Each structure stands twice: as C-alpha cells, then as structure tokens.
C-alpha cells in the first residue's frame, strides 16, 4: 500500500481586500494565489487533497462584511472545484460569519465534519477530519477537543486496527505547544491538547500523522511513535503547500512546495523581517523530511 496526497491550509481568500492585514499575509492578492495553486497541485496528480481550514477571512480580525464573507465562500468553492482530485475540508476559525460566528453559509458549500468524520481515501488509509469548533470560534479561536471527539476517535481507531488500516488525523489548530505570549499562554493550541495527545497515544491506528494549520508555520515533530505535521500558510510566506507520500514500508516523505509565482512569494516575504520569515518557513527538516513511522509499518506490513 502507498498513498500520495497534498496538505494545503490557510488560503484565506478575501476577494476585494483593500489591505493585506498582518504580515506576511497578502490578502489583496489572495485571488491570484488561489488561481496559481490549483493548476500547480493538479500537475502533481495527487490521490486526494486535504485543506486544513481558514479558506476565507470571516470570524474576527479581518473586518469582512457579511455579504463579502458569503461571496468569498462561493468564490473559494468555485476555484477549488477545479482541483482534479477529491478535496477534503475542515473548518478553521476564520470560516465562520464575521458577525454571528455561524458556520451555516460555509457548510452549505463545503462538506465538513460535525464532530469527526472518517473517509476512505486510499487503500489501507482513512482520513479522520475533526471540527474543533463545537462552540463559536469568535469566543474560542483555538477550538476544543471534547469527550465526543475522544469517543469518535477511539471508535474509528478500533475499527481501523482490525482492518489493518491507518488513520490520518486532521484538525485546524495546534496540538503541541510552540511559542507562548507575554503572560505565558501557549499560542494557537487547542483546548484539552493534553487529553488529545493521550488519546492518540492509546490509538495505534490513529495519527500516523496529525496535520494542522492555523499558526501559519511549518513544523514537524516526532511525538513518541507518532508524527505531528504543521504546515505553513498559502496566503503568506512561506506561501505554499505540502506534498506527501506514505510508503508501503512505513516511510513518511514530505516536500514543501512554494507557490510557482515568485513575484507573490517575494511580495509577502518583503513584508516581514528575515527572522520572522525564517520562523514561518521552518528549518529544512520542517519542510522536507523522510521519517519511518513505526505505527504505519506495523499496520501495512
Ligand atoms: Fe489562518
Ligand atoms: Fe486559524
């Protein structure tokens, strides 16, 4: 068995943005960015594509008008419909209505999980997509891992284990802490992250790799015998997406692709100091890696 797919996240479409908002985002060019990425992904011919959330600029912080929010959803869906492989989406905190926090308009155009949805995506491989926003994301931007998530994940893992099938877990917000803000609060981490990590540890079919976006940074971390993969944003530097392979001998391989529009990548890069860009981009092993996954090897051998 083997799989070849794409993890793309934080495309933040804002069709008529009048300014770019916080660096390195390039919201005034978000339409051009989306137009460029679709053929670039199609040329790689993946089996499937996972979008890690924040497709648009709703929620707080972007001052988007509700009508513009609905238009952004339609435009985003229309553009992504040109992807040739199946696209699987999870909601991010910026995919809700900018005034009410409701996801209703988003759910009308994108099929997303209510709690946790499992899909067969490749022989011997299932995708478990998580909705981390059971409550209004404008009140809790980092989302929450609940008992309902725990139960759904344990059930999916038990079933997959019997069928020697691996599960990729995908959620919007970080599971492992990174930098903290001035008062010591970890940034961008899901509520109850410690319980989620314990559950993953107890579910050997689950979390061959866990994919997140939200923090707009590339990072790969080995946690016990599973892998945590955070991908940088599309809408700002490093401005790209991950291509991934799972090999039948249990190897995980990834390569980060920068958008093939050097002018847009440079315009975003120029908005920040080199040190800030370095953090967004990650080190070489955060972008490109080849790692043996013991759980995957055991399931697929
Ligand atoms: Fe984002
Ligand atoms: Fe986010």
Describe this structure in words.
- The chain is of the alpha/beta class and 301 residues long.
- It has helices spanning 30-44, 66-80, 104-109, 147-162, 193-201, 262-269, 274-281, 284-287, 294-300; strands at 3-8, 48-51, 87-89, 116-122, 125-130, 166-170, 210-212, 219-223, 226-230, 240-246, 251-258, 289-292.
- The protein has a single domain (3-300), classed as 4-Layer Sandwich (Purple Acid Phosphatase, chain A, domain 2).
- It is built from nine helices and twelve strands.
- 48% of the residues are buried.
- The mean pLDDT is 95.
- One fe (ii) ion (FE2) binds at residues 10, 12, 54, 92, 94, 214, 216.
Question: Could you write a compact summary of the structure shown?
Answer:
This protein is an alpha/beta fold. It has helices spanning 30-44, 66-80, 104-109, 147-162, 193-201, 262-269, 274-281, 284-287, 294-300; strands at 3-8, 48-51, 87-89, 116-122, 125-130, 166-170, 210-212, 219-223, 226-230, 240-246, 251-258, 289-292. β8 and β9 (226-230) form a beta hairpin.
